[in-house]
Design brief:
11 helices, globular, alpha/beta
């Protein structure tokens, strides 16, 4: 069951974000950024899922959802969890291809051309000292996965298609085509600086990742 309050250092993420639900069976799905959420949400909507009734935001916060849909506390919460290091690198790559790339370039004090040219490791070096400032303006990019998934039944991102097929089978869906949407690619391995940052900044995610899946981040 979903708790009404999730403690998190992200003030605009109290108690977290939930995006999609199925009224029957009572299933809700948390959608952390860069965990295959676009593909997963697309499939869930094809299977009859709906976004929570919250027209004021693109993403619905659970506190808002509970006000307009109090029965949601009786739903079972699910969500994909990704290796925190891989997710952070994916977030950085997505920054460079997203529609708000100019916002990030401005916040970092560099030209858009320089912003596009940076590798993920180089971009991290500029980004890390500015995260607190950026988080006051756009929280979803860098919030920990635990902001969504503290009370969730975790789905393994590293077995993404298998997990989706399990959900599909549970819902009685026999023919499933899994699209690949919003994918990013990176061949550059993370530096020790980036690894140390993720271990510290996403400490709760790293702990949950290891506890649930028995894996280190690198």
């Amino acid at each position: 069951m979903i708790e009404a309050v999730i403690d998190t250092p992200f003030s605009k993420f109290k108690p977290g974000e939930i995006m999609i639900y199925l009224a029957e069976p009572k299933m809700a799905f948390g959608m952390p950024l860069r965990t295959g959420s676009t593909t997963f949400a697309t499939l869930l909507k094809e299977w009859g899922a709906a976004e929570f009734p919250n027209p004021s935001r693109k993403h619905a916060y659970l506190c808002d959802v509970i006000k307009s849909m109090p029965e949601i506390v009786d739903y079972k919460l699910y969500g994909f969890m990704r290796n925190p290091l891989d997710r952070y690198l994916s977030i950085i790559r997505y920054m460079q291809k997203s529609e708000i790339a100019h916002f990030f370039a401005h916040e970092l004090g560099i030209s858009i051309q320089e912003f596009y040219s940076l590798t993920p490791n180089s971009l991290h070096t500029l980004l890390a000292p500015n995260l607190d400032k950026i988080n006051t303006k756009i929280t979803a990019f860098f919030a920990p996965q635990t902001a969504w998934l503290k009370d969730a039944e975790l789905l393994d991102f590293e077995n993404y298609e298998l997990e989706i097929l399990k959900i599909a089978r549970f819902l009685g869906k026999t023919h499933v085509t899994i699209p690949h949407l919003n994918a990013t690619n990176n061949k550059e391995p993370a530096t020790d600086e980036v690894k140390d940052f993720v271990q510290s900044y996403y400490a709760d995610d790293c702990t949950l990742w290891k506890e649930r899946f028995g894996r280190e981040i690198a």
